Amino acid sequence: MSLALKHVGVLVDVTRCIGCNQCIEACVVENDLGELRHTPQQAPDGLSDRRFAAIVESPQGAYVRKSCRHCLQPACVSVCPVGAMYQTPEGVVLYDYAKCMGCRYCMMACPYGIPRYEWGSTAPRVRKCNLCYERLQNGQLPACVEACPEQALLFGERDELLLEARRRLERSPNKYLPVVYGEQELGGTSVLYISPEPLDFLGFHGAPGDQPYPELTWNWLSRTPSVALAMGGLMTGLFWVIGRRMQAEEKRAARNTSSSHEA
Amino acid sequence: MAAQYRNWIKDGLWALAIAGMAAAMLRFTFGLGASTGLNDTTPWGLWIAFKLCFVALSGGGFTLAAMVYVFHLESFRPILRRAILLALLGYGSFIVSLLFDLGLPWHIYMPIIHWQHHSVMFEIAWCVMLYFTVLTLEFAPVILEHDWFRHPIFQMIYRALHVAVIPLVITGIVLSTLHQSSLGALFLIMPHRVHPLWYSPWIPVLFFISAIAAGLMALVLEGFLVERWLGSQVKLDLLERLGKVAAFALALYLALRLGDLWARGTLPAALDGSWQSLLFGAEVLIGGLLPLTLLASRKIRQTREGLLTSALLIVAGVVSQRMSLSLFTMWRPAPYLPSLAEILIALGVPAAAALIYLFFVENLAVLDEKAPLKIAPARVQLPMTWPFPFAERNSLNGIIAHRSGLAVVIIAVMLAVLPIQTAASGALPLNLVQPARGWRILWIDGNRAKYQVEFAHAEHQERLAKEMGSSEEACQTCHHLNLPQDEATACWQCHRDYLQAVNIFDHTRHQQILGGNAACQECHTVEHTRRSAAACQECHETMSPKEGQAAFNPMAPAYLDAMHGLCQDCHAQQAAAQNRPELALCKTCHSLQENPSELQAAIRNE
């Protein structure tokens, strides 16, 4: 079932976030994530198999909500060998446990380092924000957006969110850096940020460039059929040509010996 | 000497394989978190690096098949079977290791059903699956030559495989080309993780070419090992020619790798002196250029020492490239250290493969096309007789008894010794609050907010004791000592103005000054309620606001509002004036850290 909305997204206004963690709490309740546990597998940023989002501090000290960006061209979706990571028509990136083999390529490929694993389980799942897709289908807002007391989170069509973001940047140019984070990077993300401070630290290691990640592989992978054909053709051809020449050589040698016999 | 050490080596391999099995039991019983050092920021670790090496070292299989069948180089046929066996076991190791690494190994068949052709891993899954089948079919004739398979059906299969060998070989070459390169292509999508000295848009090609060099040199190494331990004479001239082919591949690999780094301007970074750059230098010089130079000289190439050295160096160089790229130099924000169980599984799989190799070599015509290797029965007694001291040595019964005894002991010891990380990691709920500590100033969770605040305990104690006249009563104001699981009274239960604006009108004081209950009429003319009371300004004329001022408000701001009011306006102004938006952020004074003294430090500095 698809939504009435075309391409959904969330706009995060960093200047409005007071770091109260109510969005996280709502997320925990909605997704039934349970109590936070410290495990040796947990990353320092606060995301884990039991937390789909976390408030992190930027290097300059602003509160920034970190969660899945729902990329328009998601690396995790492109690398999944079985399509367990998939994108809905509305741009929400979801995970299907029934297909997953647990190779964790999605975790390696995500340029934001978002997906987390249930390391403590013997039948582990990959865990990440699902933008409350079920709530969206019921016409509700994502739990985090609904819970935010400061309207730091805004849900809507991505296009409209972009317009709103630009409107805010124009209205108070002193308050924000003149960038909408998520508009361009990696081909764009559904979760957008406007911020007084650079948000490059949200990238896994360094700021991601504008090239969509799946292209990095597709440039190579799309050549697979031609490489296979070329290699197959080359090998068959060589086998035939070399074999024929050797036969001819043998024949000539045989003829030479026989002719020398005659002589 | 060979027979003597052979048993020791075999026992060592058995020990490794069994220890790996014990570790595998841990891994499947307790999960990846308990048995490995993998974590959220390093989801791929030692096993992936080993798998890359298994496949790289199996590159000899398709290369030799191509040389013998496609290029008609019949002189290499004597070592074709061992090349295919080595590849078969290499890919077997890959697949078995994968079963440990996958979180849901029983879903390994999923790529057959759910196709996702944008994924490199999907392609690898199919190629490895098909190539393993091809290798099995290529090796099957060797098995079918055994006396057990004399039945006509087997003979028919044998002949069919013989007819199909050329298409099989070519399919194998195509599949190898695809997945050898695709194993490199796995890392194309993670420029954020792979170190720039190992990252390249050409990784797929580099992986393919280096697999040819490493695979051939692995065959050379195997030739020398087999000669030393199994006593099967090596054909030095064949190995030397393998070395020559490998040298060409190596030269191409080095030229492409260095050329690409140079062309993209990354190479100068190799000289920055970091340990990664030193590793890179060692890998390229010792594992690349040095063996290339050695192999370039025919004199050196034709000696055993020269060939063996260059084989070792090349294998080490390519293994280093795979391991560095996928393990050592990968960027990670949190440290990753493989656990003991992880290392044992990583080593146990190739150890088991080596045992299977020995089994095949001893029972099938692998090393020699005509007959299985004849190994003189070991004269040395098996090293361990316990716990079956009466079993006859060297009899089938004795060997089973010894090996199984060994297995039971090793598994038991491993299970006892292997650390289970879940036990240590336990479920610790996040709770920033700790028991109150200190005396004059205590650290307590005064606001029930799970954050510590400073609390002047001694001061409260003294003041309350003075007001109430008894210290016991004073203590009970906050501590209800008779209640189970007692918590002290929260700050806000007395300090009502902490969060809420309060009325500052002091009724008692007005009553006293105006003359007790007789004075009610002064304010309450109609009935004795707050609503009907006279406004303050009726008596306190001077309290009335001046022109333009807001009306008198008996509500005093809460402590919180007052403190914010003191700072916030100026902060907002200065943020705009100095163009420093961070000044207006909550964080400037409040930290996410649980230590509120940071707030005070900030205030003091201002």
Can you tell me about this structure?
The complex is a heterodimer of chains A (263) and B (606). With 263 residues, chain A is an alpha+beta fold. Chain A has eight helices and nine strands. In chain A, the strands form four sheets. Chain A has a three-stranded mixed beta sheet with strand order 8-1-9. Chain A has a two-stranded antiparallel sheet with strand order 2-3. The N and C termini of chain A lie far apart (90 Å). With 606 residues, chain B is mostly helical. Among the domains of chain B are: 1-26 and 339-424, no CATH class; 31-338, Formate dehydrogenase/DMSO reductase domain (Formate dehydrogenase/DMSO reductase fold, Up-down Bundle). In chain B, 59% of the residues lie in helices and 2% in strands. Chain B has 22 helices and four strands. Chain B has helices at residues 2-30, 32-35, 46-57, 59-70, 80-101, 110-113, 120-144, 152-163, 165-185, 203-230, 236-263, 275-296, 298-301, 304-328, 340-363, 396-417, 421-425, 457-468, 471-478, 507-514, 559-577, 597-605, and strands at residues 441-444, 453-456, 502-503, 555-556. A two-stranded antiparallel ribbon of chain B has the order 1-2. In chain B, strands 3-4 form a two-stranded antiparallel ribbon. The longest helix of chain B is centred in the first third of the chain and has 29 residues, at 2-30. Residues 377-391, 422-433, 592-598 and 600-606 of chain B have low confidence and may be disordered. Classes of the chains: A alpha+beta (263), B mainly alpha (606).
